[in-house]
Amino acid sequence: MHVHEAIAHALADEGTDTIFGLMGDANLFLSDSYARKHGRFIAVAHEAAAVLGASGYARASGRVGVATVTHGPAVTNIVTPLVEAVRSRTPIVVVAGDTPFTDRDGLQNIDQRAVTGPSGAGFEQLRSVATLSTDVHRAFRRARTERRPIILNVPIDLQWQETDYVPAARLEVVEQPARPSEDSLDAALGVIASARRPVVLAGIGVRRSGARDAVLRLARRIGAPVATTLKGRGLYADEPENLGIFGTLSDERTTAVLDQADCVIVFGAALTKWTTAEGALLDGRRVVHVDRDPAALNEHIAVDVPVVGDAATVADEIVRQLDEAEIEATTFADRVPAPVPVEPGPVLTSSGTLQLHHVLHRLDADLPARRHITLDCGRYFFHAAPLVDTGRDGYYLHTVEFGSIGLGMGTALGVAAVDPEASSVLICGDGGFMLGGLTEFNTAVRHGLDVVVVILNDAAYGAEHIQFVDRGMDPSMSEFDWPELAHVATALGGTGFAVRTDEDLTAALVGIEERTGPVLVNIHLDPNGITSAPH
């Protein structure tokens, strides 16, 4: 077979069932070979969406996501989503075609290793026809073990050579429960056994490792409420111990409980300044931090007891030893107040547009029950993130690791490709949609992906608008007279709903339930009616 066929075969051998890509002369035959013989090829409109789609797929499925792009400008177009994927520790392989080695003056020639290196992504060169399957396998193995994007660079001049395809020798990634050292376990037990008001904090690592139930057993054994990071939200939905989000987006109920805590036991969470509220939520409290990765411990803040170990293994061992020592549980979880019912706020703003918090509460209540939520970046994020939930079975993703708007739509495509039984809901601003969502809405239409796009449209770049306003300056430079995006969505082959009143919102929510394809709901807001923070 030709090398481009052999690469497609090697990708399938790695378990790839979906590739997100945009074809060019350096990857079109590879893409065709894969789509004809091996799996689904989702053709996007911009290379950035290929990487974002692979990232959303990887984050929602727990598998390696795969994208392919051509050379030169296609590779420069993917740098921002590569940074996002690196910072979210997402394992993806990007198969990038490259200019022939002999073509120094090629119009699209550029040093692709040098271009992608500053993003933090890894790089693997397809070295020869003889090493083809080994090079592909190594790219996947690195993506899995390093939990970051790996560029697999494939020169055009190799792709039409002939080869007898030989599968690579499998070098499987070894994943075994990591048992902590006896000293660290003893220290953790000492802190936990002496605590009277403990709180357990679970992060995205608990979801990824399947340790949810083990961590909950520990919380119940010690009588502790369980909070989650924002990325881990939904892990303990509907559990009586569920405390909500731990961090800068904690609500008043959660903050009141955390203020009383004397100990925090952390599993699989990075204790960043956002999770710890600049350290305030851990100040004066004993902290036990459990993570498989030694580099994650004491990375952002020093803790009392760092424990290198698998979350489920450590949690189960602590429960066993507490039982053996007959340590009594605390009653701190029993003192957690029930969630306070949300008081209905105003529906409309003074300008006659809908009020943001009213919209978010209605979305949380009335979006399809089985849903996955992707949040784009924007000032509405701080309001939407704590208010629109996924439930226990839903995925929550956001694209704010690099502070770039416009990355949500491509990510939502990837999520939709994983689970056709659930709605992939994207919540984004108008600026983010126009930057990175407009063309990819039609990608969802073309491929029949169940995507629901909710645009919180204040007709402005909101983060910049509020800075002008706060300084008494004219904000008009940050304001935009966009076309009615509901009509644009319909023109792109989907169904659009323009929302200016609560009756419009009701009709849109009914339309989502009755949808037969991608839906866009364009909710008009007043840029002067949105604060920069949720409280």
Rg over C-alpha atoms, rounded to the nearest angstrom: 25 Å
Large-scale geometry: globular
Q: How many β-strand runs?
A: 18
Percentage of residues assigned to helices: 25-40%
Number of spatially distinct domains: 3
Q: Note the beta-strand portion.
A: 15-25%
Amino-to-carboxy terminus distance: 62 Å
What average pLDDT do the residues reach? 93
Biggest β-sheet: count, sense, barrel?
Answer: 6 strands, parallel
Uncertain segments of ≥5 residues (pLDDT<50)?
none
Name of the level-1 CATH class of the largest domain: Alpha Beta
The second-level CATH architecture of the largest domain is 3-Layer(aba) Sandwich
Helical stretch count? 21
Classified in CATH, the superfamily of the largest domain is Thiamin diphosphate (ThDP)-binding fold, Pyr/PP domains
Q: Identify the strand order in the major beta sheet.
A: 2-1-3-4-6-5
Structural class: alpha/beta
CATH-defined fold name of the largest domain: Rossmann fold
Short description:
With 535 residues, the chain is of the alpha/beta class. The strands form three sheets. Strands 2-1-3-4-6-5 form a six-stranded parallel sheet, sandwiched between helices. The protein has a six-stranded parallel sheet with strand order 9-8-7-10-11-12, sandwiched between helices. The chain has a six-stranded parallel sheet with strand order 14-13-15-16-18-17, sandwiched between helices.
